[in-house]
Description:
About 35% of the residues lie in helices and about 15% in strands. About 50% of the residues are buried. The chain is globular and about 65 Å long. α3 packs across α4 and α5 packs antiparallel against α8 (about 265-285). The protein has 15 helices and 14 strands. The protein folds into 2 domains: about 1-225 and about 370-485, 3-Layer(aba) Sandwich (Rossmann fold); about 235-355, no CATH class. The N and C termini lie far apart (about 45 Å). β2 and β3 form a beta hairpin. The chain is α/β, with parallel strands linked by helices.
Amino acid sequence: MKLKTLIFVLIVSGICAQGRFLPADTTVISNHKTTIKGKRVEYQATTGTQPVWNEAGKAIAAVHYTYYERTDIKNKNTRPIMISFNGGPGSGSVWMHLAYTGPMILNVDDEGYPVQPYGVKSNPYSILDVADIVFVNPVNTGYSRILDKDTKKETFFGVNADIKYLAEWINTFIQRVNRWESPKYLIGESYGTTRVSGLAGALQGRQWMYLNGVILVSPTELGIDSGSGRRAGPVGAALRVPYFTAAAWYHKKLPADLQRKDLLDVLEESENYAVNELMAVIAKGGFVDEKERDEAAAQMARYSGISKESILSYNLDVPTSFYWKELLRDEGFTVGRLDSRYKGIDKTKGGTRPDFNSELTSWLHSFTPAINYYYKNVLNFKTDVKYNMFGPVRPWDSSNNNTGENLRLAMAQNPYLHTMIQSGYYDGATKYFDAKYTMWRLDPSGKMKDRLSFKGYRSGHMMYLRKEDLRLSNEDIREFIKKSTPKKGAPAKY
Length: 494
């Protein structure tokens, strides 16, 4: 096996030296060992490409993946397999691969900030002890590329196009690795939650592949009450406020009586106000009583850490972009979009939005050298093709986004299927309270709520970057797998 791997690596290296492309169908295999939760785990890593074929059977794209399977487990029929996607759209799978569930994680400090020397280390909390994992890079992300220049980009770049070809790809992958008997899970982060919600429906409806679980990490609106865009109107405006509260609490910008309380207690207050009072006030628009409007602005100021005057200037509908600029304006800083614990510095103190996303620059700082080092030096995958942290996938067709309904229907059709949401309280892009609302709206009947769950963490979009939340969130996945694994012989029926 080692000789075979070496020969292949040499062949791939020779090909790539002559042209900046990857073959459509390749594998590089390596063997490793690690320690997870204090116990030794041996595993095999397979990385390479698997084709996307058109209806004529021609390979039109190469999708790069990395598959980790535990080698000290003989019976794979009962062992779960987790298929992992990141978001964007246009983002590679690097984020959860090298920082969350995989066997190796990048070097960062305990709060998630970059440190040198760059590189990777063992992940003591990886879920590889309980499930095999495959990390998938959709077309034009990571090392994945379009091969057939005559194939229209619309084949790949859109909500429903993305779901269609990836469902077929997953079917082929599961067939190749002989895992049809295994309990199957999807996990997606950010736009990846749109992707896996749609895939849950497509896999069941078009590939006849039934899942045990879907995990939504920092989820989008999934098309629920938002059409093809962001959730707007009174609902969207009110749902932002608890996030404002979390960010203000972290930066100590709340009134003293709120600041001295625990974060979760303050958020409960803010959530109740947002849903039970503020939403109704905003719904009245320009016809709201002036006294009522003023009182609402005062309460929003209390729960957001910014002035009543600035809130009134936006008619109670405060954009998040303005909030990131405004919260620490007097201190000369902005706060991050995806994780508002991070601070940035703008050219000018004035303005209505930050010059850049401070958290994203920090993450690219640490992840880019780590993933490039890891593939070449640990997994022995050598290529001149650039790893696209964010690849060219625009224009992206966001129309007909019914992914939330796709997931709901998949759950209704499959009594085994559970869904868990994981969110960071300081995420200002895919806000945690929006995620709760999405969960509520996923099942209007209330008949499946025992299969829906929410987990919150004291961090941001990539909550797993914070060491304590890395531990907690992986443990939550273990518990989710345990809960969604039926007892032997238990039938899938209501």
